[in-house]
Amino acid sequence: MSAFDDLLAHVRTTEALGQIAGRLSWDQETVMPRGAAEQRGEEFAAIESVLHARRVDPQLGEWLAQIDESGLDDFGRALVRHSRRSYARNTKVPADLAAELARVTSVAQGIWAEARARDDFNHFAPTFEEVVKLRREEAAALKEGTDHADLWDALHQDYEPGSSGAELDAMFGALRPRLVALRDKIMGADQPKGLTGTYDEDKQMALTGILAGAFGYDFDHGRIDKAVHPFSSGSGLDTRITTRTNPEDPLNSIYSTIHETGHACYEQNICRDYLLTPLGAGVSMGVHESQSRIYENQLGRSRAFTEYLFGQMRDMFGEIGIDTAEAFYAAVNRVTPGYIRTEADEVQYNLHVLLRFDLERRIINGSLEIKDLPEAWDSRFETDFGVKVDKISNGCLQDVHWPVGLFGYFPTYSLGNVYAGCLHKALRDDIPDLDAQLVQGDTSGATGWLKENLQQFGGLREPRDTIVHACGFEPSEVPLLDYLEEKFAGIYGF
Questions:
Q1: Running along the chain, 494 residues long, what does each successive block of 10 average in pLDDT?
Q2: Is 486 noted as a catalytic residue in this protein?
Q3: Which of 143, 235, 252, 385 has the highest count of CB atoms within 10 angstroms of its CB?
Q4: Which residue among 260, 267, 360, 477 is the active-site one?
Q5: What are the binding residues for Zn(2+)?
Q6: 3-state helix/strand/coil string of the chain
Q7: Which residues are annotated binding-site positions?
Q8: How many domains does the chain have?
Q9: Residues 94 and 202 in one domain
């Protein structure tokens, strides 16, 4: 066998083991007995030790050195690119540091949960200091020998390769003032009426199945289950999603499902030739989020699709407290004050993310001390949202990302929204009768366009190039802002 064939065989086995680890996580979040947690931890540790050994195997370096890329096709060159980057990063972090990070972040999650429940930042601060210290050490190791501008940039590459804090700062700097101005206009207008009544949870689950199917989810290679926090898991031939139900808020299950369907359809629609390789999954967190957000928002919350959904709601639940499709469209898109990122509407969601992006860069790069985080958070929140944070659990302790060391992750949420704005513009240009399709509940034109222009390619291209290829232009915040301003001016009448 050639060095490339050896590399491909090694990578396929590693990816298969990674899928098994992912299935353990899915099981833990959905159906695992509560008393199995201790044993599951041992199972995770065992498979992760095998994966780590495979990812830093010196033989990988030898194969990569021997491969002549001039004789490879696009798939081969992309596989080598992914493998070089992964091997370089994995071998830079000392094994003892990786082990200590795993230990500390595992403990930190429990202490964070206690601190959040108590509304006591000081209970978590010492542990948080240790998490940040270790992540800075990891970032320093990853930065060595690269052109990354700072420690935060080095960590960010795990989630959005090729992106930088400076580029994001410029994009988000242009995004923020128009979002704040739009939010202020909306808050000064009359609020549309919301849904009333209670909604049977079994019927909600039945409706989620209808909607996932309407957006192209393949149930022969997937399933929907309940979980505390909705998520998508797996790729290729086994891609699963979860949702949650609330008898007083059916929109939560509806849009959680559509969001996770976007993630899952991306994975299901990648070229089958890429299965169990680094190309066989979404290319980055930002591109992945673009799929979930365009399914959920630009398509699922559109005037046309909500007209179809209004009929489905009436058929499933009867009276919902709203009499017209137009009023339902307004109810689905209500903008209301709130502290929690995961519950935020389209207008305010990115302001939550931008706050975290700015603060975490300062934390990792050393200009913001942990003891000063609550004050910095509360001050920024009041500036952007016009209200004071009432308690720490609604402030800087609300998310689990930082406690478990996920620095560099948050901006991919807003980057995904920006990408979705660009994709939506290109899609609308190519499919002028899109609304006529959506009002019938037919998303195949839109989802087919996304499959053809983006999803099928998986990790073939770098993240930014993936968006450029699909849209035909460089990513920009402008399409997203134009879409939001036009949509919400129409809903709120200004």
A1: 94 96 89 85 84 94 96 97 95 88 85 94 97 97 95 97 96 96 94 94 98 98 92 96 95 96 98 97 97 98 98 96 96 94 93 97 97 98 94 95 94 98 98 98 98 98 98 97 98 95
A2: no
A3: 235
A4: 260
A5: 259, 263, 289
A6: CCHHHHHHHHHHHHHHHHHHHHHHHHHHHHCCCHHHHHHHHHHHHHHHHHHHHHHCCHHHHHHHHHCCHHHCCHHHHHHHHHHHHHHHHHHHCCHHHHHHHHHHHHHHHHHHHHHHHHCCHHHHHHHHHHHHHHHHHHHHHHHCCCCCCCHHHHHHCCCCCCCCHHHHHHHHHHHHHHHHHHHHHHHCCCCCCCCCCCCCHHHHHHHHHHHHHHCCCCHHHCCEEECCCCCEEEECCEEEEEECCCCCCHHHHHHHHHHHHHHHHHHHCCCHHHCCCHHHCCCCHHHHHHHHHHHHHHHCCCHHHHHHHHHHHHHHHCCCCCCCHHHHHHHHCCCCCCCCHHHCCHHHHHHHHHHHHHHHHHHHHCCCCHHHHHHHHHHHHHHHHCCCCCCHHHCCCCCCCCCCCCCCCCHHHHHHHHHHHHHHHHHHHHCCCHHHHHCCCCCHHHHHHHHHHCHHHCCCCCHHHHHHHHHCCCCCCHHHHHHHHHHHHHHHCC
A7: 259, 263, 289
A8: 2
A9: no
